[in-house]
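Human: You know discrete backbone vocabularies at least as well as I do. Show me how you would write down a chain together with its backbone fold. No explanation is needed for now; the record alone will do.

Assistant:
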Amino acid sequence: MNTKDLNQLIQRDLSKLIEELKAYSDERNLWCIDQGINNSAGNLTLHLIGNVKQFFGLDLVGIAFERDRDSEFVPSLLTRDHLLQELEELKKILEQALVPMDPNKLGDQSIHSFLGHSMTVGYFLIHLYGHFNYHLGQINYHRRLLDKE
């Protein structure tokens, strides 16, 4: 894996997320839940912002960040512009984290493990990329399903 390529892929998908949020015809629908959908697009976006800030910003770049994961899933009055501004900030954080990374670090043991499974930094970065895209797909579906004009 090449961290510059990974950065390029995540930057591309952050841009897709930005476009998804901009595509909502009514900004209020970002926070809408219905039909067995538990999380709004706004809350999923907050979750992705927290995830990237913690695992890329704090862990890899050392940016001060204290995550409140529970608040990512609470209805919010944040505006679309606020979310878009946060996403633009994430693009910078990712570039700072991934572009200068020594490729040899990818084989190092990650400080994180999930479900008792230890992993390398490279494995963890791929895990984070998959997680991001899982929620990006949910947001796309949410918009097409619940953003009725």
The chain has a mean pLDDT of 91. Residues 81 and 127 are 28 Å apart (CA to CA). The domain at 3-146 is CATH 1.20.120.450 (Four Helix Bundle (Hemerythrin (Met), subunit A)). The chain has one domain: 3-146.
